[in-house]
Amino acid sequence: MGIFDNVKSAASSAASKTKNLAETTKLSLSINSKEGDIKEIYNKIGEAFYLCCREGAEGELEVLCEKIDTLKNEIAEIRTKILKIKNISLCPVCNAENTAESKFCAKCGASLPVVAPEEAPAEATAETALCANCQAPLAPGAVFCGSCGFKNA
Ligand SMILES: [Zn+2]
Ligand SMILES: [Zn+2]
Fold this sequence. Notes:
Radius of gyration: 32 Å
Number of helices: 2
Bound molecules: zinc ion
Distance between the termini: 99 Å
Largest sheet: 2 strands, antiparallel
């Protein structure tokens, strides 16, 4: 073996090490992505279980389902808080946002659950349209009066 052969072989061994590193990095990445896929499927299985078998859950699964229940309740409470801060009440029929003082949905006319207002209602301005039936100020774009439910065309 001449000196050039040694250099060549060292170079090719270094090159193959680099190649191996690139290869294993690529393979590790594909493991990571597959593990991510598995986690996503676990999530779906968990959600499917919660939706179908919440009532029959036992042992550890029941405890976990109860945790989800608690979190869902907490989310609902926070949502209610946000609506209260924004002074909004959601229509139970069409989900439209109405002012908390409204007794009827401005979009579909459904009667709204009464929410005690935290602040005084906004003063009617010159631009505010008034209900043709009861003269209450209408919310912007409202079709139905928030006070009496009268349909204002
Ligand atoms: Zn509505
Ligand atoms: Zn009215």
